[in-house]
């Protein structure tokens, strides 16, 4: 029977998509098991951070590097892009509007101010260190809002290439990990109370898992306020994405007018960001039982962990050392700026 020309024929030269993705997805799954196991043995190490680290190791060890750059690459790229978006949607289940409003209007204004100042300051620092505009934008987004998740969202909104997210994710992971070891050392010298320390961590550390790992060193009082302040920053992902999408749409529309209107306009807000907002709304209703919230959190960790391993597996240390020196200095300067801004806000929030 003749085969339609419109349908691809599976074979060595044209493998089915599932066959192409399976090696990379299986590799990410195995790495994720290892990350969760290490986190279980050493709880202070966040599983998401470990996923990035394992990805970087896999990319730079000789045999593993050949695998991640070869047969596993399609699946790892799929994880870094599409599973990241699924994880961002489920991240909304952690944010309750009632918890955010419980902080009070002064605290909310301070958190918004810290995010705005962190975003603008980090972007300016990155440009002063002569980083490309795209890298500067992604670094500013990740440092000011919620780490790798925010970088993935901004990259999708601005239609930034997947490969351009690798360096910003590596930097935000490095500096977030640095916070886990460094910031608790300042509790006694600065005579910080547990609520002030928790608010500081929530206002200045990048990833949710890193916030938990850092704040829990000062007890449950610090951890409670740290998580609420951090999730308030996470909530700002939606308006920031909407503003970025509007700017991108206006830019593309101008280009379309120039070339005769043949350029397709991007959406103001991508569907996965709308999904994030919907999950925030669902969580805020109080309809979901704790078991459902726990299941959503577990699935979110799986999706984001696989995505972060995929992104980490694209980091080549040799290339990073040759091209990322200025980026590292910019990231450290930005990390210091955000720590100072967060501490100032925390002293007012928990006063």
Provide a short characterization of the protein structure.
74% of the residues lie in helices and 0% in strands. It has 351 residues and is an all-alpha fold.
Shape: globular
Instruction: Provide the β-strand percentage band.
Output: under 5%
Q: Uncertain regions: pLDDT < 50 for 5+ in a row?
A: 1-14
Q: Tell me the span between the first and last alpha carbons.
A: 79 Å
Category by helix and strand content = mainly alpha
Our Rg estimate from Cα atoms comes to 21 Å
SSE order, as H and E? HHHHHHHHHHHHHHHHH
Q: What is the helix tally?
A: 17
Question: What proportion of the residues is helical, as a percent range?
Answer: over 70%
The counted number of beta strands is 0
State mean pLDDT (0 to 100 scale): 88
What's the main sheet like? none
């Amino acid at each position: 029977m003749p085969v339609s020309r419109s349908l691809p024929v599976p074979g060595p030269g044209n493998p089915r998509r599932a066959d192409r993705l399976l090696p990379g997805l299986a590799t990410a799954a195995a790495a994720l098991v290892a990350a969760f196991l290490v986190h279980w043995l050493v709880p202070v190490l966040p599983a998401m951070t470990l996923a990035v680290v394992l990805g970087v190791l896999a990319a730079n060890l000789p045999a593993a590097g050949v695998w991640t750059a070869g047969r596993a690459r399609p699946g790892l790229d799929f994880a870094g892009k599409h599973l990241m978006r699924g994880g961002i949607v489920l991240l909304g289940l952690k944010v309750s509007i009632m918890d955010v409003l419980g902080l009070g209007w002064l605290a909310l204004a301070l958190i918004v101010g810290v995010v705005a100042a962190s975003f603008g300051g980090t972007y300016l620092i990155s440009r002063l260190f002569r980083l490309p505009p795209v890298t500067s934008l992604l670094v500013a987004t990740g440092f000011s809002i919620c780490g790798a998740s925010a970088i993935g969202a901004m990259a999708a909104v601005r239609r930034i290439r997947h490969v351009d997210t690798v360096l910003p994710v590596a930097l935000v992971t490095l500096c977030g990990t640095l916070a886990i070891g460094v910031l608790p050392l300042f509790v006694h010298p600065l005579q910080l109370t547990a609520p002030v320390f928790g608010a500081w961590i929530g206002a200045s550390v990048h990833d949710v898992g890193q916030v938990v790992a850092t704040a829990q060193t000062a007890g449950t009082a610090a951890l409670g306020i740290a998580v609420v302040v951090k999730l308030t920053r996470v909530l700002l992902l939606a308006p920031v994405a909407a503003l970025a999408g509007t700017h991108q749409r206006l830019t593309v529309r101008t280009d379309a007018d120039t070339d005769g209107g043949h350029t397709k306009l991007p959406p103001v807000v991508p569907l996965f960001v709308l999904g994030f907002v919907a999950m925030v709304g669902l969580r805020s209703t109080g309809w979901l039982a704790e078991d459902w919230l726990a299941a959503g959190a577990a699935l979110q960790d799986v999706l984001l962990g696989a995505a972060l391993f995929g992104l980490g597996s694209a980091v080549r240390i040799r290339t990073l050392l040759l091209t990322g020196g200025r980026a590292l200095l910019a990231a450290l300067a930005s990390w210091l700026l955000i720590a100072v801004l967060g501490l100032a806000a925390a002293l007012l929030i928990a006063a």
